Amino acid sequence: MPKLSLRRVLTYLAVTGFSTILFILVLNNIYWHDTNRTLISKELHDVISPSSYRYILNQPDLCEKKRPYLVLMIPVTLREIEARTAIRKTWGHESLTSGVTVLRLFVIGRPVQNDPTLQQQLERESKEYGDIVQMDFVDTYHNLTIKTMMTMNWIAIYCQRARYALKIDADNFLNVPYLVNYLHAKGESLREDYISGSVIRDGHPNRNSHSKWFLSEDIYPDTSYPTYVSGAAYVFSTDLALKISLASRFVQPVPLEDVYVGLCLRELGVKPVYATCFLRLRNLFEVRKMKYDRCTFASRITVNGFKPQELLYIWHDFQNARFTC
Ligand SMILES: *[C@@H]1O[C@H](CO)[C@@H](O)[C@H](O)[C@H]1NC(C)=O
Ligand SMILES: *[C@@H]1O[C@H](CO)[C@@H](O)[C@H](O)[C@H]1NC(C)=O
Q: Least crowded by CB within 10 Å, which of 56, 80, 165, 222?
């Protein structure tokens, strides 16, 4: 069977919500028939699977209506109102690029303690801006892998026609025109199996139980991580959303979402690409904190470590970059 039509079949199955069993059989027998992969247990997979959770707020028709080229998927928590407001006014503003549609979506779970006032506020925001998707899993740092799988699932089901998606944390600066030009410059050839950002090649699990990044040997016995892309921001061709969702059936969950995506990519045989500017060996997805400088920032795609107020503060000045840098 040619690869393309298989992919169509898989997409069709995913979208029409065919039974999971059939799905797995197709996958196991055709797509990965030549290796010895084993499915993880259903109980384990259910924890991270979006099908275990229900949408509280969704935007199912958004992509069909707007036909975006690029979708920005931004994980935030319910209470990060200030961050959402700042992003809407700065890099998430949808009119930054002419001729190309860029969509913005905030991806949210539910808080540990229900907060009806904040929830009502979110629902008002959702009505006003149409940029919220929310599912009913508990939204904690340890559950970010669920959030990422929810993001992948959402794109696979509602937004396959977009060319690219960017998963980006709210505490970043983002240069949308640079990113769009960068993706355009890649041409059509990289439309599939493309994922790029700040690539980490020599990662290994942190065994210090007090660390934020701790991973026990029970959960992850291996002593190193596969190549993965820093979770601060990574861009990918939307075909990967479905493929990563499928691959997750074979990959033991870990609470580090970027490492988890890396594990799924290894399963798929997809290698992340480092986003650099060739001449200057400059990392375009900057994970260090950097002092704001108009022309330095004009030559980056993302810079990490911004509070909402700082973002608003630099944004006005940054608008002059295209005339002066
Ligand atoms: C799959 O496993 C079997 C038995 O353990 C082994 O004989 C075979 O070589 C393996 N195949 C691959 C492709 O690794
Ligand atoms: C993750 O989300 C699930 C589903 O809502 C919840 O049962 C679990 O307690 C959460 N785990 C953590 C560590 O927050």
A: 222
